[in-house]
Amino acid sequence: MNDLVAVLISKYNYWVYIILMMIGFYAIITKKNLVKKIIGMNIVQTAIILFYISIGAKKGATLPIISHGHDAVGHAVHASDYINPLPHVLMLTAIVVAVATLGVALALAIKIYRQYNTLEEDEIHTRIREQ
Amino acid sequence: MKIAGLIVVLLCGCLLIYGTVDFPEWGDPASPASTHVSPYYIETTMEDTSVPNIVTAVLADYRGYDTMFETIVIFCAGIACIFLLRTYTHQAPETRLYRHIPTGIILRIKKGGKLPEDSTDFERVDLQWVPYDLIIKTACRVVVPFVQLFALYVIAHGHHSPGGGFQGGVILGATLILYAISHDLRTTIKRMSEKAVILLSAAGVFIYASTGALCLLFGVNYLDYSGLAAILGVDPVSARSHGILIVEIGVGVAVMAVMVSLYYNLSSVGKQDEGL
Predict the structure, then answer these.
(1) Does A86 contact B262 at a Cβ distance shorter than 8 Å?
(2) Which positions 117-176 of B are in contact with A (Cβ < 8 Å)?
(3) What's the pLDDT tens digit per position in A36-85?
(4) What's the total number of domains in chain A?
(5) Residue A22 pLDDT > 90
(6) Interval B198-244: pLDDT, tens
(7) What is the pLDDT of residue B187?
(8) What contacts B183, CB < 8 A, 6 or more positions away?
(9) B9 vs A99: CB contact, 8 Å cut-off?
């Protein structure tokens, strides 16, 4: 029992990201409304950002800005003192790109609404068949 | 459909949870992600670039190509949004609403109707009419310049504290969006025209790419800022630090312009006449 709890606690960041990602996938797969699908897509993006950031964490380390970098010249910087900067770099750009892709997705939704007067997927399908 | 979707999602989730068995534990310093290239970045950033913020150094220097093409992705998203929505030709709307400023009375002008030409007592308001609110307008007008100053600080101080082009650019774009929400879209477009926004988003990408190309002229690799030492008049390590600042400014300009452009087009459905 204690082993199971230890495993659960040591890997809870993965559990959270999996739950969030599955909520997003469920929305993308089952929801009929296009805006709800877009919201699901954004939840998936959030889950991936959370996953990357949690990978970068290190026990006993601080954020990746070298303290007194210019004052003490030549003092050694140990990798174990600072968390992994690489996932932060990747996610920094991913957040802004997520906003930009959200903009394109909403623009497409507006275009579809202008054409078919609805955002419900099944109604769009019937209208395409009618034409 | 719903049940099938739920089963697929649950199966996928179970597979992912099964996969986490092999994953490193939370905060493990010996995890694969923290053992290969990341210690190199942490230990040599100060010697290579003299930038204390490792994230900024990796973003704009070690992985400059990645960031450049992310900026291009954002630029392309802004352009795609314009292509999708900006398909209107300008035509005068059926009716317009005008507010008489001294009295606060709203006038509805039908098509063909005209206000006195030289009158400055009237201001146009949106058809989805919202009551005039002095407090919100004044508060936002007071706040906007300080937020913009903070955005510039975030861009310029990205070497020493959390920040950089992406964050500062988004804050800068948010101030313009705040101005557009508190006043109206036309007032903001008067301040920052659509043409200026598109030119700025292209200029940001151009600053980034041309800085890389400038390095080529000095006989070093593309985006290797140490080649800029000759024109900046500093040693190669400081030149990399300054080169990072230049490309961060480019990123900030591009991100700000694209955020504003997305807002202009999405809020007014491409008409850029009446919006939120």
Answers:
(1) no
(2) 160-162, 164, 166-167, 169-170
(3) 999 999 999 999 999 999 988 888 888 888 887 676 555 677 888 889 99
(4) 1
(5) yes
(6) 999 999 999 999 999 999 998 899 988 888 888 888 888 889 999 99
(7) 86
(8) B137, B140
(9) no
Does residue B12 fall inside a structural domain? no
Q: Which residue in A78, A56, A52 sits closest to A66, CA to CA?
A: A78
Q: Is residue B78 part of a domain?
A: yes
What is the ipTM score, two decimals? 0.88
Average pLDDT rounded to a whole number, residues A123-128: 92
Residue B174, domain member (yes or no):
yes
Q: Is residue B97 part of a domain?
A: no
Residue B178 lies in domain? 47-90+133-267
Q: How far A131 CA sits from the closest chain B CA (Å)? A: 22
Task: Say if CB B188 and CB B274 are below 8 A apart.
Answer: no
Strands of chain B (E only): list them: 96-100, 106-109, 122-125
Q: Which two tokens stand for residue B8?
A: 């697929």
How high is the pLDDT of residue A61?
85
Count of CB atoms situated within 10 Å of the CB of B4? 10
Q: Residue A90's closest chain B neighbor by CA?
A: B59
Closest CA to B71 of B203, B181, B190, B205: B205
pLDDT value at residue A60? 85
Is A70 within the bounds of a domain? no
Strand residues in A11-106 grouped as ranges (E): none
Has residue A17 been placed in a domain?
A: yes
Average pLDDT over all residues of chain B: 88
Taking 70 as the pLDDT cut, the residues of chain B under it are: 92, 116-118, 129-130, 276
Number of domains in chain B: 1
| CB B241 within 8 Å of CB B159 | yes
Other beta carbons within 10 angstroms of residue B34's beta carbon come to 26
Phi and psi, residue B109, nearest 5°? -105, 120
Structure confidence at residue B245 (pLDDT): 92
pLDDT of res. A73: 58
Contacts of A15 in chain B (CB under 8 A): 17, 20
Is A39 contained in some domain?
yes
Which structural domain, as residue segments, surrounds residue A111? 2-60+80-130
Here the CATH number for the domain that contains residue A41 is 1.10.287.3510
Q: Are A14 and B20 in contact (CB under 8 A)?
A: yes
For tokens 């998203």, name the residue: B77
Strand partners for B100:
B122
In a domain, A66, yes or no: no
| Cross-chain Cβ contact B58/A85 below 8 Å | yes
